[in-house]
Amino acid sequence: MSPRDPDILEEDWLFEAITETYLPLWQVFEGLVRDGIPFQITMSLTPTLCAMLDDELLRERYLRYLDRAIGLAKKEIDRTQGNPELNHLARLYHTRFLECQKYMSIV
After folding, report:
1. pTM for this prediction
2. Given this model, what pLDDT does residue 4 score?
């Protein structure tokens, strides 16, 4: 397995962590700053994680991951039209992936 391989399971784990943990945290921090709320946090980030988050190839792959996730969520919205609960969930994920994509375009 080479870092240049297009599909690596560990990358999916990183991308899920970015989507479900790191971006939401960052957005909360920005909201607190925007609202003038003082806060402090202690957080440990390993050198490996920092290097991965700063890697241009992984950033490009994350954007492709989001494109695929948006496409899948759209298909789920269409597929679950007859099931309000699942359709709502598919719409939530679709919106979340779009927000992540938009956010990544400005950072």
Report:
1. 0.84
2. 60
